[in-house]
Amino acid sequence: MLNAVNRWRTCVILVLASLLAGCLALPQTGLFAFRLAVTSLGIEEVRIGPYDLQAGLDTSDLTSLLASSLGAGTLPVQATLAMGLGLPAGMPAVEMSGFRWTLDMPGVDPVQGQYQQDVTLTPGDDAKLRLPVAFDILATDTQRMQPMLELASQLASQGELPAGSELAITPGDLRGLGMTLPSGLLTPTIRLNVGADGQLIPQR
Fold first, then answer.
1. Distance between CA atoms of residues 167 and 184, nearest Å
2. Contacts 24+ apart (CB under 8 A), 1-5
3. What is the pTM for the complete model shown?
């Protein structure tokens, strides 16, 4: 009897893992990597120091802003990464116990964090998440300051990640079908590249 129960539990885990594994891309509408769908990716609420770039700051002369901040020794850039996560049709709802993430943008050291809240993933009803992105322009080599200022201006003016950016997501524990799939068990890190026209490209 015990062996039968163990076999049943193993079978359920494998079924859940198979549903969450694999790779499927949908043109324009989204990307499914390991069956976890990143359906949207954008940038909101960009700030340089105390200035909200979406509130009318003239970003054509960010060098003067840099000069005015030299005495303070810091010029933080803060933004919000808006992301949609979902599941393909036909899959059961899954509860994910947060995830680790890393964002690598050209010219900036990688930004990483931990989304600690549970995320309910339901087909046809994407979870809308917000991740804080922050870096300091003055905490870098002087030769990199201008490219970092240009990056901050681009984030604000275009509302999207620049081409060449990479996003990595490591799912937490997954609960579904009455079972729990521990983080790291058949749910490896999902890695996405941002293409020239903003499309999401899975890393193989």
1. 18
2. none
3. 0.74
